[in-house]
Amino acid sequence: MIKxxxxxxxxxxxxxxxxxxxxxxxxxxxxxxxxxxxxxVTARYxxxxxxxxxxxxxxxxxKAIEAGAKVYPKGAVFAKIAYLAQPDPAFESSLGPSQTRRxxxxxxxxxxxxxxxxxxxxxxxxxxxxxxxxxxxxxxxxSACHDLVxxxxxxxxxxxxxxxxxxQLFQLExxxxxxxxxPSELAAxxxxxxxxxxxxxxYLTKNVFQGTxxxxxxxxxxxxxxxxxxxxxxSDDKKKFSLVYPExxxxxxxxxxxxxxxxxxxxxxxxxxxxKTQFCQALTR
Length: 285
Ligand code: HEC
Prior knowledge:
Elements: H1 2-20, E1 22-23, E2 26-27, H2 34-37, E3 39-46, E4 51-57, H3 59-66, E5 77-88, E6 91-108, E7 119-124, H4 135-146, E8 173-178, H5 184-187, E9 196-201, H6 210-227, E10 231-234, E11 241-248, E12 262-268, E13 274-278, H7 280-283
Parallel strand pairs: 9-10
Antiparallel strand pairs: 1-2, 3-4, 4-5, 5-6, 6-7, 8-9, 10-11, 11-12, 12-13
């Protein structure tokens, strides 16, 4: 009995010391096991150091990121685990996570972390140890890089459902063009009532594939319904396009965003295949 208790002691001591570790006022023990409790909100692969990164969010942060938050509320916490990616010897082109490398945390608390725009940064090894470098230097480095994304409240990650397009693309820049200047295949799809259309200006027009056209539909639809105009996204080579226009101003769409306007969407790729679909459901994405 006594022998058993003694044997347990060393590992218990180790656990206790790891649990007591804190950095920047953030206690490792408060977050142990987050990966089993929180939602995985995104994953990233870093080409600079061949690391896979998995980003988890506590319920407050998960709700905010999925809604495309521009500012995170107090209590939001992100935790990221970074692993070196290593090939599976059984199938070398398939890379998977190797040993755990680091755990990084961002805790939103505007009162406590004024100096770093409301975020408390902390870095631990997976055993719950801190780096030997001065804490202040580490935290300043975290914050300096995260300062690159003020428009996302210093959070790089974007939720899976919003990932394929950067946020700014949803505020589509556009100009007005005459229908007559459009390529004939496209002009033929635009009802005569629209002598003028809004055309999207974006770096995305350079490289267009079906995914781009699909992803853009909700943004085009929003523009078409707010401006009550036909909206077109046209690739620089003028061979691919996505067109959305109000079809019948008297038809109701279920979705509020459509403001009672039914929209028609047409996309076309190189092969000239044309899909014409009722568009209301795309607005709810
Ligand atoms: C040189 C730039 C850079 C530095 C320095 C940096 N980060 Fe990040 N961080 C990123 C990028 C880029 C991401 C997006 C995911 C990825 O690529 O790992 C990220 C993601 C995160 C996330 C997930 C939430 C989000 O913003 O996407 C956390 C948490 C995080 N970093 C914490 C830290 C902490 C703590 C430090 C300092 C110890 C730190 N970061 C230092 C660039 C940086």
